Amino acid sequence: MSARAASAPDTDAVVLVVNSGSSSLKYQLIEPAAGRTLAAGLVERIGMEDGHLQHRIPADDASFDEAVVVPDHEAAFRVMLGAFAAHGPSLDEHAPIAVGHRVVQGGARFFEPTLVDRLVKINIDELSALAPLHNPANLAGIEAAEHAFPEVPHVAVFDTAFHQTMPPAAYSYAIDRALAAKHRVRRYGFHGTSHAYVSRAAAEFLGRPVEELRQIVLHLGNGASACAVSGGRSVETSMGMTPLEGLVMGTRSGDIDPAVLFHLHRRAGLSVDELDRLLNSESGILGLGGHRDMRDLTHAADAGDADAVLALEVYTHRIRSYIGAYAAQLGRVDAIVFTAGVGENSAIVREWSLAGLEGFGVLLDADRNRERSQAARRISADDSRVEVLVVPTDEEFEIARQTLAVVAPPPVE
Ligand SMILES: Nc1ncnc2c1ncn2[C@@H]1O[C@H](COP(=O)(O)OP(=O)(O)O)[C@@H](O)[C@H]1O
Ligand SMILES: CC(=O)OP(=O)(O)O
Ligand SMILES: [Mg+2]
């Protein structure tokens, strides 16, 4: 049984999952019990002249691409509805009983999936101060979806929720307490939906209760974060108040001495907005190696580009540092789990990240690491004390599952 079906509730209900970014709308129509995606799609370049729709129907192995004009999120929803009408599946036959939304920043207020009402929307809007790149788009998506699906409940699933179990020692910054409290400056952590799903799927793969396991989950996508998961609960994660802290990412610097900002402001005359753009959009492997996409960076490194090689070294050096730190926090590591676009696909990133950890009981099997597969798999050697796994993430499915749990909770036995 797949990790999807194994953890799904027993019903044939269908849920629409929406992930709205500032310029894109990703959607999936999911039947959680069967672990099945009926349709998946993406409306890109919202607000620009040259919008693009991709609509896929996995069962038919069919994919439709169209040029579309989408001035805003509401138009994006109309495009999505048009794609269902034109290419199927029929939303009358497979009517969603709820819409689940990814919301990036839930602050300290939201620690579980939440039914959206007026007050919840006010809170999401208010939390935009802590996630200016993400929450406004998430809210625009919710409002457009409410307009398109006025009859069904809408549920917000927060990236931050899974990390609400972090202890104060892990989430507090060492700055003035009163100032931090007033402005809600603390670490929140992100990618929680993925860390929750992957840590559970890893336990299923190992055939062991998640409560018994201490895991380090490495979500390496465009954004990247590490999470120490003890007994199924997040105890530490690398992203902080915003998704900028921690690992090196496609365009984000991750950890940096904050004094670099003072220096660049005073000496190079960069404004706060310019520094924001520098660290969020022009840094990471793009800034170091000239490519934001790991495939392009790896090709350049293979071709002997020294900047690309250094970018890969910095990227994996940072991962190794976090593995060491989290091993110390956990006291014992049962599994290191790689996930998301880079974690699932890049053998070289996995190999370099774990290089030199043999003394800590981490032994990679070179052949297993190079195998290509979409399934959860073990890539450690048989005599490795720590299991090393690749477990594909599935944020949309996890959002669908959590949404269903809110609108149709399983009966209490
Ligand atoms: N075969 C591959 N080898 C190396 N990197 C890959 C491969 N496939 C995808 N990636 C990388 O995965 C990253 C995107 O990950 P993904 O999880 O899809 O991102 P997000 O969901 O955050 O947009 C990109 O850097 C991309 O280059
Ligand atoms: C929170 C975050 O970094 O998300 P993403 O990886 O989708 O950019
Ligand atoms: Mg992703």
Describe this structure in words.
By secondary structure, this protein is of the alpha/beta class. The chain has two domains: 3-158, Nucleotidyltransferase, domain 5, CATH 3.30.420; 208-395, ATPase, nucleotide binding domain (Nucleotidyltransferase, domain 5). It has 16 helices and 14 strands. It has helices spanning 3-6, 73-87, 118-126, 135-148, 168-171, 177-182, 192-206, 259-268, 272-281, 284-289, 294-302, 306-330, 340-345, 347-354, 366-370, 395-407, and strands spanning 15-20, 24-31, 36-44, 51-57, 62-68, 98-103, 114-115, 154-158, 214-220, 224-230, 233-237, 335-339, 377-378, 387-390. The strands form two sheets. Strands 5-4-3-2-1-6-8-7 form an eight-stranded mixed beta sheet, with helices on both faces. A six-stranded mixed beta sheet has the order 11-10-9-12-14-13, with helices on both faces. Helix 11 packs across helix 12 (306-330) and helix 12 (306-330) packs across helix 14. The longest helix is centred in the C-terminal third of the chain and has 25 residues, at 306-330. The chain is globular. Adenosine-5'-diphosphate binds next to helix 11 and helix 13. GO terms for molecular function: acetate kinase activity; ATP binding; magnesium ion binding. It is an enzyme of class 2 (transferase). ATP binds at residues 26, 219-223, 293-295, 341-345. Its cofactor is Mg(2+); Mn(2+). This is Acetate kinase.
